[in-house]
Write a sequence for this structure.
């Protein structure tokens, strides 16, 4: 059984077809991970402030 391979006429076409999928994937990863990353930064700052009090 012989299989045929698809070839694109130009170099830009595969990138143009993949770019929207990659952009949407990155947006959803950012939206899902963004609030968690922010809460980690806030918790780290609170812990640092609690254990590193300034001496009067």
């Amino acid at each position: 059984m012989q299989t045929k391979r698809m070839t694109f006429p130009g170099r830009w076409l595969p990138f143009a077809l993949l770019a929207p999928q990659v952009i949407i994937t990155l947006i959803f990863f950012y939206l899902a991970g963004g609030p968690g990353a922010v809460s980690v930064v806030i918790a780290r700052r609170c812990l640092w402030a609690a254990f590193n009090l300034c001496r009067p």
Remarks:
- The longest helix spans residues 12-51.
